[in-house]
Amino acid sequence: MRLATQHVRAALLGTTLVGGVALLAGTQVGWADAPAPIDAQQAGDYSEGYAELVKALTPAVVAVRAETSRNGAAEGSMPEPGTPDMREFFERYFGTPEGPMPQERPGGPRVGLGSGFIISADGLIVTNAHVIGGADEVEVVLEDDRSLPATVRGVDPLTDLALLDVDTDEPLPFVSFADSEDVEVGDKVLAIGNPFGLGGTVTSGIVSALGRNLGSGPYDDFLQIDAPINRGNSGGPTFNLDGEVVGVNTAIYSPTGGNVGIGFAIASNLAGEVIADLRDDGTLSRGWLGVGIQNVDETLAGHFGVEAGEGVLVTSVQPESPAEAAELRPGDVITSVDGEAVSSAGMLSRMVASLEPGRETSFGILRDGETETAAVTLGERPQPQELAAADPGAEEDTEAPRLGLTLAPLDEATRARLGLAEDVGVMIAGVEPNSPAAEAGLRRDDVIVRIGETSVGDPEEASEAVREQLADAADGVLMLLNRGGAQRFAVVTVEVS
After folding, report:
1. Burial class (CB in 10 A: 0-12, 13-18, 19+), 248
2. Which of 179, 253, 276, 442 has CB atoms 3.0–4.6 Å from 23's, for a disulfide?
3. E strands along 305-410, which residues?
4. Which are the catalytic amino acids?
5. Domain count, the chain
6. 410 located within any domain
7. Together in a domain, 374 and 466
8. Do 305 and 423 sit in the same domain of this protein?
9. What confidence tens digit (pLDDT) does each residue in 340-370 have?
């Protein structure tokens, strides 16, 4: 299930992420001779409640306070009140044009409050990247009300994880990650955190669903829980009843900004991998293939000779990437990585990211109905870069037959910004409501790169390519689109008379 972005609310405040080498369940992160993690396993069925379990776990959960100066805030910090960025922020995360601000003195610094948990006796602490993003100063507050200054060990925006470090003269109580592969829908869980600045708050519930993709990044892997979490719970732990962390609380689904019983936590296996990599040197090293991808749904499956949910469709290949060197191309369906079947774009992204750059990897490919194997030497994933938006300019429109599209020539500046070859691409200037194109999800300012197997460079070529597909009695027109620099396939279904 993909949730509407405007209804996914960040549990709030901070900015930090993680990723990398697998952190095995129960593995310590800290001194080689540090004491073992908190042993909170309890006998019985908890029919009398969770008091003893909570007493054991709460000392390892902290409040995170992130202070950001109003002037010169770093990239990723909270936008200024009253600005379009602030309105967009609250519409995205709270469902309202404006919303409650972090603690703030007029003309003074902004202070964000979130949660975190200790994973090593020497003071390594996990939280969300969005909790500490852009902060000038970060401190953590322990259960005994001690405040300790914290340094940011590493951040991974793509998974919304961060690793903090505090100096301590004595070992701190800490917890370990569970193996999230063992988590099942219906398992009981506890969430502990700092909602609304109310430290040490405990809520309980069950795991409602596994493997949720919120569209927040390429490596989404969320547990859905019904244990109530609210603003300030971000970065805090979700525990199983053995006292192990199964997830890092990150977001809620809410039309109003309040809790409605649907929360999301980053699965512990993904969080553990990221944190372990950040722990080494504060940076992440991810394998990189260099392709745009999308899932194969029912409308696409027949065009590529696969079953829906079988393999992942390549929509674009980046220049000078490992994929280009291996001669992968748009329209290929990646079916496996080193012999392991691939069923979704998210799964493929996580599999590639977990592999070491420079590693030769075998990809199963379905191309034009034939099965092939491609040997690819993976690169290292570049840092995320913001893509420029397309500007179609004013041009005369041409109507594409039967689809409900109005097309316009693409200017060279826009073509260059989108990374398209010369004479490739046609701008969609309008989409008729309730038309086949609208039903297929096409939008104004999308760029049509290819129709069927034909690259198109102007409205006339696009119209002719559509006519050719319809003349062949096809029940749909397969298009390769470029939307804001990212490419994807779409099928516009039409009735052929």
Report:
1. buried
2. 276
3. 312-317, 333-337, 340-341, 360-367, 370-377, 379-380, 398-400, 405-409
4. 130, 160, 234
5. 3
6. yes
7. no
8. no
9. 999 888 889 888 988 889 999 999 999 988 8
